[in-house]
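Section 3.1 - Work completed
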Amino acid sequence: MRKTRKAAAVLTAVAMAAVSAAPVMADEIKDLYDYELQTREIETWNILQSQQSTDMNVLTNLYDGLVEADEYGKLTPAIAESWETEDNGLTWTFHLRKGVKWVDQNGNEKGEVTAQDFLTSLEWVLNFHKNDAANTSMPMEMIAGAEDYYNMTNEMDADAALALTAESPEFADTVGIKAVDDYTLQYTCLSEKPYFDTVAAYNCLYPISQGMLDEIGVDGFKAATPENIWYNGCYTCTEYIQQNTKTLTKNPLYWDTDAKLFDSVTIKMVESVDTAYQLYTTGELDRVDLSESNLMTIYNNESDPYHDQLVEKRPTKKSNQFHFNYDKLNDDQTEDTNWNTAIANEAFRKCWYYGLDLGSWYKRTNAINPYKCYNNSYTMQGLIYTSDGTEYTELVQEKLGLPSYDGETMTRLDSAKFEEYKAQAIEELTAEGVTFPIHARYFVASGNQTALDSANVLKQAFSDSFGDDFIVLDIDSYVSSVSKEVYNLKRQSFAIAGWGADYGDPQNYLGQETDDSDNAYYMVQLGHAVDSESDELKDLYSQFTELVNKADTITDDMDARYEAYAEAEAFMLDHALIVPAYFDISWELTRINDYSKINAMFGIQNNKYKNWETSTDAYTAEDYAAFLETWNENASK
C-alpha cells in the first residue's frame, strides 16, 4: 500500500486516544528557553559561509530568504511575495515585497532589502577568495555562468578578487542573475530546473547588503559577529557568551507583522542531555530531549510526575546510512587490502543489508518504539510526492519488493538470503586471499560516553548478526575533528552519516553518490569508490550514475522524473552500495507543540522560532494525540 501525504505515525501506548478538538491550554510562553549541547556550538555568524546545522539552527532566526515553509512543508512566500517560471524552470522571476528592513543588533534600521542584495550575496558565495568554496555546489550546478565566475576568481590575485562586487563587469556580465528593478529578481539556470524555487530555501541564495560590507569590510563579514552583521529575520542576537548562552530578541521592524514571535529566546549551552534534563525539572528550560535512561525511568513508573508528559518527537529531517569506505587506508597510510577487497564484493555487502539486525541499537534512539527508527531508503521520507500523493520512497520500496514500513520490524531482514550471501562471500573472498574475521573500523568522539555506549551496542549487534568468525566491529576514537583525523586520512571502514535535503528534489540526495562530480559529497568525502581497485564495483557506480543523470534530464513530467530516480535509488540499495541505517525519532518533555513548527524537508528553516504554539504547562501525550490528529486532517486537504 502506498502512503499518501497523511503522516504515517503510530500512536504508542503512552499516547491516549485522540480527541476531536485541541485541548484548552495554559498561557503561551513569552520568553522561550531552549538549549544546545556544548559540542554543537556555533562556528560562524556568516550566513553564506555556514554549512552546519548547528550554525543554521541559530542563523535561520536572524536572516530571511526569498521563501520559507509552513507547518505542513508547503513552500510559502517570505521576502518574495510571488515567483514564477515561464519556460519550465530555465528562468525564474521572484517579486520582492517592499519595506523589508535591514537592522542592526539593537533593531535600528540600516536599509531596505532589495533585489541587489541577492546579487551581492551570490557574488560573495561564488568569489573563491571571499567564501572559500563554501555553499558553491548548488549555484555552480544550476545557475548560468556561476562556475565560470568561481573559476575566474580562483585564478585571480586575492586582492583583485576581494575588490570585486556584484556590479563589477566580471560578475555582472558572467552570472545568470539580475535585478530587473529594486523588487524584481531574475535567475537564469544552466538548464531547466523545475525545482529551483526550493533552492531559495537554502542559505546559498540568501541576501546580504552591500551597505553592510561597505560598513564592516570583507574581513569584517568573514569574521562576522552578532555585533557587526545586519539582520532581516525574526530576531537579532543581542547577547552571545560562547559555550554559555545566546539571547535572541524579537526584531521590532520584522516584515511579517502577523507572525507569532517570542519576546526573546535564550539558548543555553549544556554539557549533556542529562544536564538539560535537570534544568528542565527546575523550570529553566521549556523542552528537553530524553536519554535512554531518563526515558525508561519515567516510562516504567506510572507515578512519576512526568509519565503522562512523555511525547514522541517527530522525525528529524535526515535519512542516515552506513557509508562504506571503498579505499580504506591503515594508520601508516598503506592500503587496507583485506577490507577493500571484502567491501568491493557484492555478496559481502548484501550480508549487511539482509543480515544486520539493528533492533537493539535502535533502542539507543527510541527505547519505547525502536523499530520506528528503521530506515530502508536513501532519501528521507516526505521529501516529495507524486501528483497522486504517493510519497517518493514508497516508489523505491515497491521497486525493491519490500512491504511498507510498519514501525515494528526491519522488513529487509532475510535469514535465508543472509546465509546464502555469507557462504558466497566467504568462498569468493577466501579465493582472493581475504582473511577472516574481517575487521570493520568505526570511530566515535573521544570522551563522548553516550556515543561510545551506542557503539558498544552496535558492536554486539554485529556479533549477534554476523558471528565473530565473519565480521568484527572495532571501535576507535578521534580527539576533536572526525574529518581531519579520520575521513581525510581514509581510516574508517564505514561511517554512519545522514543527509538533510538542501532543496526539494531526489537529485540532492542521489547526487551525493555519483562518480562523475567533485560535488558528490559522500563519494568524495567518505566512499571513494572511484579509487577502488575493483572494476566490478566501479562499473556498478557508473551504472548508478547513468541512472541518476538520466532521471535529471526529465523536467517536463515530474511523476516520470521521480519514477526514474526511484529506479536509480533501488539500484543503489539492491547492490548494497550503501546500507540504510536509521531515522532519528526520539522522546521529549516539552511546552512546545512540535506540530506547529515549520516542517520543511529541505532548506535551513526548521528551527525558526516563528508561529510556534506553546504552553506554560507541559503538554501531555493526550495533547500530542490531538495535535497529530489535527495535523493529519489539515495536511491531507
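Second construct:
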Amino acid sequence: MDAVHGLDLGQPPFDLLDDAGRARLAARVDMGYHPRGQVIIAAGAPSEHVVVLMKGQVHAFDLDGAGHEQRFADYGPGDIFGAWAVMAGRARHSYRADTDVVSFLIPAGLFRTLLSEQPAFAAWFQEGLAVKGQLADRARGSELAELMVTQVGAAQLAPAVRVPATMSIADASERLREERVDCLLVDDPAHPQPGVVTRTDLLEALTRARQPLEALVGPLASRPLVAQQTTDVLFQALVTMAERHIERIAVRDGEAIVGTLGMAEVLSHYASHSHLISLRLARARSLDEVADTARGMTRLVRSLHAQGARMPALMELVSALNSRVMARLFELLVPRELQGRMCLLVLGSEGRREQLLKTDQDNALVVDDDLDWPELDATMARFTEAMGEVGYPPCPGGVMVSTPHWRMSAAQWRARLDQWRSHYDAQAAMDLAITLDARSVAGNAALFAPLDARLQALGGDERLLHAMAAAVLQFESPISMFGQLRQDERGVDLKRSGIFPIVHGLRCLALKHGIAQRNSFARCEALVPAGGLDATLARDLAQTLAVLQRLRLDAQLATLDAGGVPDNVVQPAALRRLDRELLRDALRVVKAFQQHVRGVFHLSD
C-alpha cells in the first residue's frame, strides 16, 4: 500500500500501524527534493514533516561552543529523521543533505495523530531501543519464544515428597518406587531447610560406600537445596542445572516447596541438545572426550540464536557450559586430593557470564599458601594446552594459569591487590579490571572469597576509580562515522566502540557503589537503587548491550560460514535497515553513557 512508489509500509515502523493507519498515511504522504547542502531541518526549530529518505545521503550535526560543526550521525535510503522535531516542537540536531536528496514527507499533523491513536507506533519513537530490539528478534523468527517466557510453574512438576532424616535407605528406596519420583526432600531438625537425596545417592551409598540398608538417609542429603521460583523462566532452570552439575531442582512458590523439576520436564518444552552437552561433560573420562563434547558448543549457539534466544539468557547458558568444560579439564588433570588446595578462576567475559563463541582463554589460579606441589607448573601448562585443544585459543596477553603472573598463592594475590591500590599504571589498571570479573569454576572457592572481599574494598579509592574509568573514554564513539564516514575498510568494531565502554563503565560504577555482581546486566539493574544510574539509562544500556552482542554474533557466525576467523567487526552497509537503525540508536546510548561516566568520575576531555 504505497502512496508513492518506493515507500514500503510493510517495514518497521510502519508495520506497527493498523490497516486504517497505513491507508491514511498512504493517502497523505508527499515527496520532497533537497539539493546538496540544504539544511532540511535546523536544530531548535520545529518541522512540518517527518522525513523518510528515498535517495541520497543526509548527515545530522551539532554546533559546539565555538560554533564548529560536530557530526552526529548519517542517514541513507530508508532511514527516518525529524520525528523528535515534530513530537517536541524543536529538533535536537540539524540535518543537511550531503547529496541531492529525494524523500517522502509525512505531514506533522498526521504523524501526531497516528502517535496518539496507535500505541505500538508511538512506542517505536518514544521507547526506542527496547521496542526495536523486540521487533528485530521477532523478524528473525523465534521458535524459542515460548521457552523464554514460559515460567517454571507451567512445567510438569514432580511431587515434592518429604521424608524424615531418620528414614532408612531401604524405606527411602521403596518410597521412591511408590511415589514414582527420582528424589526425596529430607527434613532434619538440625537444618532449617530440607536437603535432597536422589536415587543415585542411595545407589552409591549401597554400592560404593558399602552402607547397610538400615543406614539413615539424613547424612546422604545434599544441602543447601537448589531451587527456582515458579515465576522464573524455564531457561533459567536449565542454566541452573548446567551450572550446578545437577539434573533436578526444587520449585518454590514463595517459601513453599511445590514440587521438583528435572531435565526431562524442561526438555518437554525445549528441543536443543544443551542437556546432552552437560551430561556428556559430566561423564567424560578423558581430554579427548571433553574436546569432542565441546565441539558441539558452536552448533548449540547457532541453533539457539537462530531460534530467537535472548542474548542475556543465551550468554548465561553458554557460560555455564563453558564452566563445566573447564571444571572437567581441571578435575582430569589435577589429582583429586589436591583440588581442594587451589581455586580455578575465570575472568573477563567468561567471569561475567557473557561469553558466546569460544574466545581467548582468560583464567587464573589461587593456590593454598602451604601447598608444595612440584608438578604445579607443568600441570597448569597442560591445562592451557588442553583448553587450546578443546577450542579456546591462548590469550595473547598471557592471562592464563600457565603464566606465573596469573598463578599465585593466596599471599601473593593479597600482595598484588595491595600493589594495585598504590600503582595506577595502565598495566595495573587492566589487570585489576579483568580480575574484578573473576569467579570460581573449580577447586576450593573458599580460597578466593577473602581475596574477593579485598577486591571489592578497592571501591573506596577515588584515585584508583578515576584511573580505571578513564578507559571508558579510550575509544571515540563511531556514531559520527556511521555509514560511509570515518569507519575503516573493515567496518565498525562493536567491542571497542560499544561493548567495552558499557561493560567497563558498569564495572567501574559497580565497584564505586559496592555492587558485587559480575554480570553486566545484573550490575546495570543493581546500580539503579544504588543511585549509580537512573532507570531510563539503565534500561537503555541493557538493551544496547543485548543489541550489540546480537549484531556481533550475527557477524561472527556469518564469518564462520565463510570459512573465516570471527572478530568484532560489522559492516553497516551490509546490515538490514532495522539493524542499522538499532546500531545507530545503540551507539547513541553508548555515547550518552560515556558522558555519564565522565561526569561521575570527573574525567577531563
